[in-house]
Design a protein that fits this description.
Helices cover 19% and strands 21% of the residues. The chain is of the alpha/beta class. The chain has one domain (2-90): Periplasmic binding protein-like II (D-Maltodextrin-Binding Protein, domain 2, 3-Layer(aba) Sandwich). A three-stranded parallel sheet has the order 4-1-7. It has a two-stranded antiparallel ribbon with strand order 2-3. It has a two-stranded antiparallel ribbon with strand order 5-6. A hairpin with a 5-residue loop joins strand 2 (11-16) and strand 3. The longest helix has 13 residues, at 29-41. The protein is globular.
Length: 104
Amino acid sequence: MYMYQSEPYLIKKVRLDENGNEVEEYEGFCVDLAEKIAESVGFEYIIRPVADGNYGLEVDGTWNGMVGELVRHVSIYLYAFFPPSRIRRRIRCRIRFRKNYVHP
């Protein structure tokens, strides 16, 4: 499950484990929502921030960001405050945008 890192939706926290190694943990609204859905539906997930840190733009015919992750089938779910733009609605693969879960 990929998420766009943006407070208060996804906040990365780094802590040291008992061996002194850095461990990344996440908290925030999207994490809370994902946990509730996972409990209700019964699935496990791993949170990863989007590699390039972008929402998704088409550059030279290739999508980057969260949209690119979906197009390349790197992820099947994304949680973020991510408005569907006219440009994103043109995506050849089908992306289903859900209604906002936060009122603007």
